[in-house]
Design goal:
The protein is globular and about 75 Å long. Strands 1, 2, 3, 4, 5, 6, 7, 8 and 9 form a nine-stranded mixed β-sheet that branches. The protein has an eight-stranded mixed β-sheet with strand order 13-12-11-10-14-17-21-22, sandwiched between helices. Strands 16-15-20 form a three-stranded mixed β-sheet, with no helix packed on it. Helix content is 39%, strand content 14%. The longest helix is centred in the C-terminal third of the chain and has 17 residues. By secondary structure, it is of the alpha/beta class. Strand 2, helix 2 and strand 3 form a beta-alpha-beta unit.
Amino acid sequence: MTVFLDDVEAAAAHVRGHVTGALHIGAPLGIGKPHRLLNALYDAAVADPTRPFTLYTALSLDPPSGGDDLEGRFIGPFAARHFGEDFVRLKYVDALRRNALPPHVEIEEFYMQSGAMLGSRQAQARYASLNYTHVARALADRGVNVLVQKVAANDDGTRFSLSSNTDLTFDAIDALVAAGHPRPLIVGEVDPALPWLDGTAAVETAFFDVVIAPPPPYPRLFGLPRQPVSDADYAIGFYASTLVRDGGTLQIGIGALADALCHALALRHTDNAAYRRVLHALDPDLATHPTVQAVGGLDPFETGLYGCSEMINEGFKRLVEVGVIKRRVVDKASLMRRANAGTLSALDADLIERDGEFLHGAFYLGSPDFYAWLRGLDPDTRRGIGMKRVGEVNELYGLDEGLERLQRRDARFFNSCMMATALGAAVSDGLDDGRVVSGVGGQYNFVAMGHALPDARSVLLLRAARDAGGGREGNIRWNYGHTTIPRHLRDVYITEYGIADLRGATDEDCVRAMVRIAEAPHQAELLDRARAVGKLGTRFVAPDVWPQRNTPDALRAALAPLRRDGSLPDYPLGSDFDAVEQRLLRALAWLRGRTATRGGKLATIWAALRAGAARDAEAMARMRLDDPSGIGEHLMARLLALGLQQTARSTPEDAVAPTSAS
């Protein structure tokens, strides 16, 4: 019988009383975590050092914290407004940051909030490097005895939706039972803010052993702030969009690169002339690029795309709204229902249109606007979205390989990486000293599918260089001390300077293609390293056009007219920052870049002291610097005024919102 409770402390006591010995608790990644219940379980565990407690999870989301420096003054008010004053922070995350977990408590994650735990010895030591589809097996190996999850309830409370996280719950239960473990205690915490999604996400009450319905107030769902899209991001996104074929399948990640790609696909469909103007500005010969001609297209979408991605996000919302994501597929459950009813004759149009879904995902994460969209879907659109097991979305060998191969025709798997080598390996999740930035997640799964499906391609996106130490550091390296995707799985790479098609290429051809899309100052070193080890003929000389066009200044000049005419808006999928905050973001990013070195910091301070007073009174008031007191505040006010003046007419190049991790 399902136990119904309305108090999280009582629920924590019930869990501890039900399980004998050590507690091994599994919780979903992202917004599916029941924060209040987890905090109650953590408090109880800390208070009882005689009983070991381990939590297995991933992506423990924590809002950034404010402070009294410039970035802290920006973050504080924004975080309070965006996340809500009553947002429940996870207590174990705070302990991990301080390396303060007690000895009998362990937190094991397979994917971390990007960069958030680089300084945590406890988090780094207990990181589990796993493909997303291998996590359920690992949970079975560890003998997880409790699963906790946030859920949505239907109107009369008789059914519940796993909503945001169908990814691992079903797979974990099956893996535990198959390994001979008892079925774990399954606990659901009802959140009225969580959107209801039906189909395979919905379960009967009896699925849960315990259902908790805490009283209000109900904190907001964690909303990812939408970032501005830089010129480099736009170039990468538009190059990527040319490799998508009408009638195909789309998988994307999250962040500014994904936003740029989705904006490009939407523009390709809704304003093809503007879309082609952007492509021409990037490369007048792009339409004749061999890879574009072989696997992609530039025309609007007549048949439309089928979305099949471990994560559903903001970009998919836009693509559904404008009619790009619309190709319906039929899953095995629909086929079985029709077969049992005796009406299944073939995969006919009627079956696909009535029972088919156009978007499959294993979890979702996005902005408050994205969650509101999900809550307000019309019935037909809601039926078109199917939340699935990660084993069904991320690989071909889930429920029905033959059917999944048919569904995923002309699949394009777009993922990002931090760095790549000139010989085609990708660095996506960690540093060469062994520290983990984020995690592998599903990247390997999608790269492998890109090779397993005959008409699919795996496309890795990266910025060619980044600001570091007051200069520019190349992201295409000769080699690096950590690899996420080995070079024998190389396929397509895209930077802001073009497309490198490496599938089946020799090492010499691979080097040439990667150097072609590297930033100009780093090309010569890569070529020299390749020649030194015999990977490139000594007579090869890079064409003069490579260093001329592969610079941020050349890219900025090429895209400036498209910025001005609105084809490339700062925030293509909407913004969570108001107009004043958008100006401040540009100013703070400018200051961050100019003060990265000691010399740069001194020069910027000197320029700020010589500059005139601030003209942007709203921005100064927002940062509590309209009436500065003391030397520190006066200096911050002068620096901010300089940043605002310098960026008054600029585009949001690298104007990324500061976070606690940065």
